Fold:
Amino acid sequence: MDETDEQLMRRFQRGEARAFETLMLRHRTPIHAFLLRLTGERTRAEDLTQETFLRLVKGAAGWEPRAAVRTWLYTIARNLAADAARRQVFRATEWLDAPAADGERPRYAPAATGPAPDQAAEAAELRPRLEAALAALPAEQREVFLLREHAGLSFAEIAGATGVNENTVKSRMRYALLALRQRLAADGLVAAQAPPGSPTP
Amino acid sequence: MTDHPRTDQLADLALGLLEPAEARALEAHAAGCAACRDELAALRQTRQLLAGLPPLTAPERGAAVVLAAARQAAEAAGAARRPWWAAPRWLAGGAVGLAGAAALAVLLLRVSPPPTMFGEPEPAPARAALQVATPPALPAAPVAAQVAAQGAGPVEAASDQASAATAAGERERPARRAARPTAVAVGAPQAVTPAPAAESVRAKAGPAPMAEALAAPAGASAPTAAIASSAGSSEAPGDLSEARPLAEAKRLGGAPAAPRGAALMKAEAVADRDDGPPCRLVLDAGGKVIGRVRQGRYPGPEGEVSLTVEERYRADGRLSGASVLVGDRRIAVGEAEVAAGRLEPLPGVRLAPSAAEAARAPPRCRP
Structure:
């Protein structure tokens, strides 16, 4: 029987380090995935993932049981990513764009790795195209889409995390889906849209 | 409904954003309208496809640092009978009197290879560990990992190594701090039950760093003990005799008891220049600077620590001068020590990339 995040957090507040370890093990990969898809930059996503959990440690004392830990985590992660993006404006970006010396791809360049064997062939072709479609979204739409579809936050929670009202969140979600649908259609992954005004059969 | 619904209405329907009555009406229309039905299907399929994207596995790097911080916080809660959030000095951002080199060693250790999400045939952690452990040219094998593997005495040996580096770096300073090991980031094999997720990795060759950190009993692991012991000793007069020549540290590190399974794949130096944005250098196990110059201090359990690269690199690519900043205290690292190989920032890492490598891709922190 798995403990809830909140139970783990309370145990951590009481001084049980293991509880935090469990918490981190549970959320580390999804948080990292969120940050990677949000920032599009791998090394930055790694840094931000670590920083997110350090913030969780530091802020744990002030946590109150009525706040969902998961929502809090994504809020931290999202804010860190937003801060980093703002800072980047003021920084020279050459090192971000320059190819790394070890040949590591400096920019987020999704590729298919490690799909389940039974669906390997299909996934190998599909996944990078889906990642590319996501990456092509405007940041504020991508953020909402990821928080909703991958992190599973409610629209109200997303509104709280992103600092915009719920209607704006829903609007971004709608446009994200429409943009993705267009992109996937152009990529031949879903049917193209029928021309407007086509007759109703 | 005679008119077609707008596409954004269909999107709202596909997203479950509509009120039930409106949703029913749209569904009813779509049931009799091929265009709308197809569009709705495409929108739903889009959503479904993207929902199927797998999570991208987080790298191990950094996990141990966070867990050490968590342990420290939890430990303070249990030990002091006070609100633990008020306890650890490093949390308050204060300088903790760790010897710089020891702290740096933690920061420099990169215990896992990069994650494998980008399609590059990057080795799995276990394989990476073997590769790194193999080269005979590795001047000082990851001592901390190695000695931890021996189980009983990780602290002393790691301390020796750290002391050596620190002593060299502090030659100009009368103040002496006790060097303490903080083998936080080391995926040290310990006699603990592996975490289930890492079992396959462990079975192959060695520890998965995060799993090790996770499996280590809270409050009883070497890293935690090291941190705890260092906290009270910051101002204690250091014992210079502890600081063995680095040659000895190398010998220790290069001992036949190779660090089986110790995954020292890459190292990182966090650089925080006075005249420019902070940056981070990534070194490989051979000490070559292989990449990324990035911003950021490194908030670790020892406080914020950064390596200040003062002159960056000379033409031959060596790190020409650096200092280690621990809290508000700076420990100078002389160029001579670096150039002569008397100072190493990390067991197993030389700051001496080949001239060719440096010429091809000179690592730089540009303002």
